[in-house]
UniProtKB/TrEMBL annotation:
This is DPBB-1 domain-containing protein. PANTHER family: PTHR31836, RLPA-LIKE PROTEIN DOUBLE-PSI BETA-BARREL DOMAIN-CONTAINING PROTEIN (PTHR31836:SF22). SUPFAM superfamilies: Barwin-like endoglucanases. Residues 1-20 form the signal peptide. Keywords: Signal. It comes from the Eukaryota. CDD domains: DPBB_RlpA_EXP_N-like (cd22191). It comes from Mycena chlorophos (Agaric fungus).
Length: 211
């Protein structure tokens, strides 16, 4: 009788663990979909530095400088949605393109890494020469089509773009990131971008290894 009780306990214990695993995986997949789906800053949002966005100086402390404005409240809501991944700073103009194939290999932000982005990753490359204010390696950026705040996405800088025009503010994106803002057939689009904080959760297939 005692043996049956022990066996029953063991069965219930492992059944509980097994049922929890799919729930955990489901939660992770739901969270991943949020990071890989375009988000909106609101239909009425305008890219105006007076709306409470901060200076683009990456060393500034956003918590000390943000004003209490509708834009700041919207940012707070996005932070809750994206678990720490939040755009900061003044919107800056740039152009965006996309890359694929062999260009994905050997991302230059690592001296040596076995990791290679795929078309489904959310990473980008920036102009190699002459863009002094470019987002640096491993920083996240938030991007929206110029004056279109309803189709925005995040990506992590992992590479440099040797083929981008010298001095041009140019962000070269993976297919997955670019298509959140525009169709691949457009090829090149005007965007606004700003720096972003790191996410609380991490998906290596999307952003590469942590550093």
């Amino acid at each position: 009788m005692q043996r049956l009780a022990v066996l029953a306990f063991v069965f219930v214990f492992f059944a509980t663990i097994a049922s929890a695993i799919p729930a955990t995986n489901t939660t992770r997949e739901a969270l991943k979909r949020k990071y890989t789906t375009a988000h909106s800053l609101g239909d009425a949002y305008t890219f105006d530095p007076r709306d409470g966005w901060l200076s683009s100086n990456a060393s500034s402390n956003p918590h000390n400088q943000r004003r209490s404005t509708p834009a700041a409240s919207a940012n707070s809501g996005l932070a809750d949605l994206f678990r720490g991944l939040l755009g900061l700073g003044s919107p800056e103009p740039a152009v965006a393109t996309w890359y694929t194939g062999n260009d994905l290999k050997n991302p230059s932000c690592w001296a040596n890494t076995p990791w290679t982005p795929t078309d489904k990753s959310f990473v980008c490359a920036t102009t190699l020469v002459g863009w002094e204010a470019r987002p640096k390696c491993f920083q996240f950026v938030e991007m929206c089509p110029r004056n279109t705040p309803t189709k925005c996405t995040f990506a992590r800088v992992v590479d440099s773009c040797a083929g981008c025009k010298t001095g041009q503010s140019h962000i070269d994106l993976t297919k997955a990131a670019f298509t959140q803002m525009a169709d691949l057939n457009e090829g090149i689009i005007d965007i606004h971008y700003r720096h972003a904080t790191d996410p609380d959760d991490w998906f290596e297939d999307l952003w590469g290894p942590k550093v």
